[in-house]
Structures are given as structure tokens and as C-alpha cells.
Amino acid sequence: MRALFCYFSATGNTKKCIDLYQDYLSLSGVESDIHNIDDGKLEFNPEDYDMVFFAYPIHGFNAPENVLKFAKTLKKCKEKKRLIILKTSGEHLRINNISSYSLRRILKRRNYYLTNEYHYIMPYDIIFRHTDLMAYNMYEALKGLVPLDVKDILDNKIVKLKYMPFGHLLQLFMLIEHPGAKINGLFMHTNKDCISCGLCEESCPAKNIKIDEKGKVHFKHSCLMCTRCAFYCPKDAIVFGLFNSWKVNGKYSFQMPKEEEVDKHKRYCKNSYNRYFKIAEERIKNQK
């Protein structure tokens, strides 16, 4: 059995997810290949695989624009192809379940049929910074859930998320985030702390950033608002346009913190997070 992963990971959360999937599929004798959507055209032939995974971070209750554009480049499969969708986001809200609506429509026309869909919670790279403890708990839940979900997939158990009534209408409306990201990109710039290291230019998935011969950083009009540039900037020098107050800088350790932290956002989606962790804990416990 063979699996193909097509993924986009803005700041690494989704990549952590598919790395775990690859490991557990390998333990079950499933060979897999990975295509990073950042790299452009797909060099693998989906016809050669038993199942195709699409993985992405949720952007404004949607799949990122580059993921949708990539899906549209795929040729129609001669025979129906099994589709599994993996998505990550910073909160366990039911509206996020419908984020794959546009992607599923595109792939359905190319003869992909959805059998499994999973939504995992990982720490924010925009809006606010989760505490190290919360990031650790999210990653531990992911590590516990993935082997269970891989088992369901290999056992041919169909698992689909519950969608909100008429949620697809809100999802379609929220596609406004795609042109909105381009508008916000026009307001992005760097501050005096910028050292023109080139990391943002090199890593931008939309090739939206250019550094001129004088070392000045220029942001163009094709921003995805994936936050990768601001998140990984070593000097926290990127002013994130109209959403600068939501900027998060610096990668998470995903380790248990040694000291107690002050959680300024402990009330934010508290019940939703508690419900997610409780469900994860019960599933993991019941499989032991």
C-alpha cells in the first residue's frame, strides 16, 4: 500500500502532523511520499497511490489560497482515488470543520472521494501566543491521536467531521480572507531592527518578499498572510500590516515548561479547548 501527502505548513504545525502520520504508516508497512505545495508542480503521479492526503493549516475558516490553487492543477484521476484531509488550527471550533468545503469540491471533480477527515489543534502563529504549557499539551494530544486515526484509515473506517448547518455559506463568505491577505500585504514593512538577513525572502511560499541591493525589504501584492515571515524573523522586525497587534514571533519548544507561566488568555475558548483535550484523553485511554 502506498500513500501520497500533499501539504502546506506555514510555520511547521501541519508538518509535525504529517511527520507523525508517515511514521505510523511506515510501522504498518505503508510506503509514502511527500509533496510540499511550496515547491510548486506535483512530480508524483497520484494514480500510483492507494490514498492521497491533503494537509493544511486553516486560514479564516478556509484552506489557504495556495492549497486551493494547487488542487486545481491536478489532473482528473482515471479511477476514484481515496482522499484523506488533515487540518490544523489554533482552536477547537466547529466552524473550522467546514474549512475543507472548497477543497473537497475541487478534488471531487478530479475523482477524489473523501473517506476520512481530521482536525487537530496546534498553537497559534497569529492572534496571540499560546503558553508553552498549552503548546505542549496540544502536541501531546496530537501524538496520542495520530496512531488511532492511522488505524482507522488502515481499517477502512470512514471518519468525517460534523459540519454546521449552512456552514458552507459562511465558509464561502470567508473566502474574502484571500484577497484581504493581499491588501494587508501592502501595509507590511520592516522596522529599524531588520538586518536584511534574507530569511523572509527565502522562505515566503508566495514569493511575495524581495530584498533590493541596498538591503531594503519590499512586500508585494501576493501575500497569503501565512505569517511565516513574521513568525520566524530572528529580530522580530516585520510589521504585520493591519494585523500587527496579532503578530506572533518565535517558534514553540513543544516541551513541558520548567517554570509556571502567566496565561493572559486562559478564558479564551476555554470550554472548547477543555472539550478537545477531554475527547482526546478518552480516546487515547480507551485504546490502551
- The whole-angstrom Rg is 19 Å
Structural class: alpha/beta
State mean pLDDT (0 to 100 scale): 95
What can be said about the biggest beta sheet?
Answer: 5 strands, parallel
Judging from the principal axes of the Cα atoms, what is the shape?
globular
- Largest sheet: spatial strand order: 2-1-3-4-5
**Helix/strand order:** EHEEHEHEHHHEHEEHEH
First CA to last CA: what distance?
26 Å
Instruction: Outline the low-pLDDT stretches.
Output: none
Question: How large is the share of residues in beta strands?
Answer: 15-25%
> Number of DSSP strands?
9
| Helix content percent band | 25-40%
Q: Classify the oligomer.
A: single chain
Please tally the helical runs, counting DSSP H or I stretches of 4 or more residues.
9
Write up this protein.
- The two termini are 26 Å apart.
- This protein is an alpha/beta fold and 288 residues long.
- It is globular, with a radius of gyration of 19 Å.
- The chain has helices spanning 13-27, 65-73, 101-108, 132-154, 167-173, 177-185, 199-203, 228-232, 270-286, and strands at residues 2-7, 31-36, 51-57, 81-89, 112-121, 189-190, 209-211, 217-219, 238-239.
- Helices cover 34% and strands 17% of the residues.
